[in-house]
């Protein structure tokens, strides 16, 4: 429980779209998220649209007429995790995971495939060295699958499969000094 601030979840996550019409077609048409608010930004700066993704939370998109193109592997992963693509730059948005009911998880994957969306295999995330189990068992803490929106934004449908306890927080956090890219940059300037 947060003793500092009374947070009620994510109000909205703001991403950038290259084509707002196509974004509406995907998020409302394919994923069924109602478009609940649209704004034209002042001075012709662009647009800002909000989609209800459930639980009082929203996914929002900016459209900027002069937005640079995405750089796969920098601004977002170049592909899906099962393809070996997970890396994105510091400060980037790696992916958005939407919580779905565990009892509807496999049906939702099938439904997206029927709508023509390319989806990853189901991943059973666990604490094994590879982080993924072939089959469901008590050690799996979340099941998920990944797919991309029309702009290459990595999305995930995920469902928790067990309750966390104190044993789930057991890793020493890495620091900036642990980054190989930082070490290589320092060696080049030395």
Automatic annotation (TrEMBL):
<dbReference type="InterPro" id="IPR050383">
    <property type="entry name" value="GlyoxalaseI/FosfomycinResist"/>
</dbReference>
<protein>
    <submittedName>
        <fullName>VOC family protein</fullName>
    </submittedName>
</protein>
<dbReference type="InterPro" id="IPR029068">
    <property type="entry name" value="Glyas_Bleomycin-R_OHBP_Dase"/>
</dbReference>
<feature type="region of interest" description="Disordered">
    <location>
        <begin position="168"/>
        <end position="190"/>
    </location>
</feature>
<dbReference type="Pfam" id="PF00903">
    <property type="entry name" value="Glyoxalase"/>
</dbReference>
<feature type="domain" description="VOC">
    <location>
        <begin position="9"/>
        <end position="160"/>
    </location>
</feature>
<dbReference type="InterPro" id="IPR004360">
    <property type="entry name" value="Glyas_Fos-R_dOase_dom"/>
</dbReference>
<dbReference type="InterPro" id="IPR037523">
    <property type="entry name" value="VOC_core"/>
</dbReference>
């Amino acid at each position: 429980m947060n003793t500092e601030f009374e947070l009620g979840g994510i109000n909205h996550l703001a991403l950038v779209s290259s084509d707002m019409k196509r974004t509406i077609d995907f998020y409302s048409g394919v994923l069924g998220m109602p478009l609940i608010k649209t704004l034209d930004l002042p001075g012709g700066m662009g647009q800002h649209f909000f989609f209800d993704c459930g639980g009082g939370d929203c996914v929002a998109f900016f459209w900027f007429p002069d937005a640079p193109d995405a750089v796969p592997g920098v601004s977002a992963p170049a592909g899906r995790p099962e393809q070996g693509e997970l890396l994105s730059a510091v400060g980037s948005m790696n992916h958005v995971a939407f919580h779905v009911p565990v009892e509807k998880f496999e049906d939702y994957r099938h439904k997206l495939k029927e709508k023509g969306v390319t989806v990853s295999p189901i991943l059973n995330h666990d604490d094994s060295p590879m982080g993924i189990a072939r089959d469901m068992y008590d050690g799996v803490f979340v099941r998920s699958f990944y797919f991309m929106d029309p702009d290459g934004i990595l999305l995930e449908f995920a469902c928790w499969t067990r309750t966390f306890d104190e044993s789930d927080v057991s890793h020493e956090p890495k620091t900036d000094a642990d980054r190989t890219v930082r070490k290589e940059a320092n060696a080049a300037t030395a």
